[in-house]
From TrEMBL:
<feature type="signal peptide">
    <location>
        <begin position="1"/>
        <end position="17"/>
    </location>
</feature>
<keyword id="KW-0732">Signal</keyword>
<protein>
    <submittedName>
        <fullName>N-acetylmuramoyl-L-alanine amidase</fullName>
    </submittedName>
</protein>
Length: 443
């Protein structure tokens, strides 16, 4: 009897184990999933839909790191533990990491020799749209723009549907923030801030560009805040933010004109210095930075003069008629340009001829800048009844080192008798040169 009971107990236990195994097996069903528009096989485990790591690699980076699965994509990083207990993995008692936050969610598990990941957990971390049988990432777009006013700075917040490369630059007093590969509503946003009153969003080819004006003596910073399912670009601007833009870009707002009044001995009166000082006064009143290579009978040394030349946006040497040109009538005003083969130093030529890095056009202008400046000076002086000749000149060191427009302006032997209009041509010449287009025409 005892043997019969024992046998019956073993038989019942075996049947129960087999039944439990069958029940567990029946909790795993295979089906079809649209993963970002691509059909793949999925597995429904205890009611939760899973996809293999191999299939998920079609839209994200999936790497196993020991007992953890690292899933990266769309600006987000998910760390999911691998639970060998297939039932426990499908519960919400597991701790997973989504970006910098830890949450309770389903974990990864083993199935048929591969690692499978829960679609609802991945969708939550990526900010994707998920329903059984379909997993879709939203298109890359700017979903909203909001603002907040502060005591010393204002804040703009751009909410994105997914991560993207963000490039920012300061053009004059305008900040441009470019969102690569993004789309969004093109409109002007009125903000609540005291320092940034409005911002404009425009589509720029495949990219989206946000632009706003930066107040005087203010700085700005751009950074991302990435949380599970969301990506934000935050922009702080105002006097409370340190100004960190390169000095090169600060010069775009106030270009530098360097005047070199050449000392001419034996003339009694220093005509070139007189003209340079009056020109500097007029240009300063017009909002330019102006520096003279000398203020009296002595001036800067060669090294200091070359340093100024390299920093200049316009470099003009002022001299009297001292350069004899065969066959030319001497005595009148003349503009001298460097010959084509002697226009640039090795540094300037290298930037012009090579692949231009960022802001290279601000650092070094094209060779047409000098020509356009000369034509504008001739036109403006012609309106005042002053005819100016054009002449070539070879190998003047300061002109070769100047990265933008550079001329030798010969006032002529009769400079002391000229009725001089204090440098009005220069104030109209600026709009046609590349360095100033950045300030007045990039709107």
């Amino acid at each position: 009897m005892k043997r019969r009971l024992a046998g019956a107990g073993l038989l019942a236990a075996s049947a129960l184990a087999a039944g439990l195994g069958l029940a567990r097996a029946q909790q795993i069903e295979y089906g079809s999933l649209s993963l970002g528009g691509t059909p793949v096989q999925s597995a429904r485990i205890y009611g939760a839909e899973y996809v293999s790591a191999a299939s998920l690699r079609q839209i994200a980076s999936v790497v196993r790191e020991g007992p953890i699965m690292r899933v990266e994509g769309y600006g987000h990083t998910l760390l999911l533990p691998i639970d060998e207990d297939i039932y426990r993995a499908t519960t919400s008692f597991n701790t997973v990491q989504m970006d910098a936050e830890r949450s309770k969610a389903r974990a990864a598990t083993f199935l048929a020799g591969d690692v499978y990941l829960p679609l609802d957990t991945v969708a939550r971390g990526f900010g994707a749209t998920y329903r059984p049988g379909e997993f879709t990432m939203p298109p890359a777009a700017l979903s909203s723009v909001s603002s907040r006013a502060g005591a010393t700075s204002d804040r703009l917040v751009l909410d994105l549907t997914q991560d993207t490369d963000v490039v920012d630059e300061l053009r004059g007093n305008d900040v441009h923030v470019v969102l690569r590969g993004m789309t969004g509503a093109q409109q002007r946003y009125t903000t609540r801030g005291a320092f940034v009153s409005n911002a404009r969003v425009v589509q720029d080819g495949a990219d989206l560009r946000l632009r706003f004006s930066l107040p005087k003596d203010s700085g700005y910073r751009v950074y991302k805040v990435i949380r599970p399912g969301s990506v934000r670009v935050v922009i702080d601007a105002g006097p409370g933010v340190e100004r960190t833009s390169p000095a090169l870009l600060d010069r775009v707002a106030r270009p530098l004109i360097v005047l070199e009044p050449v000392a001419v001995p034996g003339t009694g009166r220093d005509f070139t210095l007189d003209v340079a000082k009056r020109a500097a006064q007029a240009l300063t009143q017009a909002g330019w930075q102006v520096k003279l290579t000398r203020e009296g009978s002595t001036g800067l040394g060669l090294d200091e003069k070359m340093m100024l030349a390299r920093q200049s946006d316009v470099y003009v040497m002022l001299d009297l008629a001292r350069f004899p040109v065969p066959g030319a009538v001497q005595g009148g005003p003349a503009l001298y340009e460097q010959l084509d083969g002697d226009k640039s130093s090795a540094y300037v030529a290298a930037l012009r001829e090579g692949r231009n890095p960022a802001y290279a056009s601000y650092a070094v202008g094209d060779q047409g800048g000098t020509r356009r400046l000369g034509q504008l000076l001739q036109t403006e002086l012609g309106k005042a009844g002053i005819q100016v000749a054009e002449r070539p000149l070879s190998k003047v060191l300061a002109l070769s080192e100047a990265p933008h427009a550079a001329l030798l302006f010969e006032l002529g032997e009769s400079a002391s008798r000229m009725t001089w209009r204090p440098w009005a041509p220069m104030t109209t010449a600026h709009a046609s040169l590349p360095i100033w287009r950045a300030r007045w025409q990039l709107t």
